[in-house]
Amino acid sequence: MKVTSLSGQSNRATMRDVAALAGVSLKTVSRVVNREAGVSPDVRERVTAAVVRLDYRQNLAASNLRRTGARTGLVGALVQDLSNSFSASLLRALEDAARRRGTAVLAASLDEESEREQELIHDLVTRRVDGLVLMPASERQDYLVAELRSGTPAVFVDRPPRGVDADSVMVDNHAGGAMAAEHLLLQGHRRVAALSDMGTIHTAGQRLAGFRSAYTARGLRPDSTLLVDGLRSTEQAAEVVHELMSLANPPTAIFTARNILSTGAVRALAERGLRREVALVGFDDFPLADLLDPPLTVIRQDVARIGKTVADLLFARIDGNDAPPRHVVIEPSLVVRGSGEIPPPPR
Questions:
Q1: Which CATH superfamily is domain 173-302+334-341 in?
Q2: How confident is the model at residue 1 (pLDDT cuts 50, 70, 90)?
Q3: Contact in structure between 48 and 23 (CB atoms under 8 Å)
């Protein structure tokens, strides 16, 4: 049996849940799980059965740490993909701040798997990390309510918290998507393809919405057949670009809403000999993007600033800051390098 919140999310069973199921007091549950005397055999058996049924996991280290205010010198960080340059740079900024405090960072990839997210959060909480940094894969994070109330600070990054209220640091993805589209429209492009990740992902949805808004602001409408979402890899992006460029009326420019999609688009355009004929603007910078032919124009996220802001918020909470949660939004910037300035072919 799992303890489930009203939202349907599974939560870790608490000592209070065990007490309610067994029909005893919290003190009695404490005595049983700590193997103290003064509890009758039948009551002990009832509590033990409740512990098993609820999968309650006692953590003596957690209790001791919270009572004494001690720390483990560990923080947990869960991002979508450790191999991605954005996640790697973010973690490096967090690690730099943590090192100055003698704190280690335990990091892992979520790969957009909500079940994996909850499993890893449970593992980190069991290790008694002093705080959490989370780039969530789940739609809601109600399962964290008990942990946040018990004093474990958490900072959300890249995506907003849902179902809980906690500090967050995000980029204005809508503005970034609009910036990319506006830049291409200013070059004279009208048939602009947009490649993005799954629409259910907050960042992907916002970037595409921003892209559309730039058209709307000019009284225009993008061709829906050129807007492709659900792309999860470089290979998928390359395949889609090949398909788009094979159309009778292909796009003259492309916006890629994630760095791995930019890589796929660059590859496909090179394979078709179109590197200097089709404009390309990518969201997210990445190593060597400035050395491509032509160099890639990007919407850049200030990852170092994002990471530092996340670290500042997290360690302030660890140090006892109990102010209301802060939601920091950082503006992206357009980095002009050449690929986004290729004009459309003459009519």
A1: Response regulator (3.40.50.2300)
A2: very low
A3: no
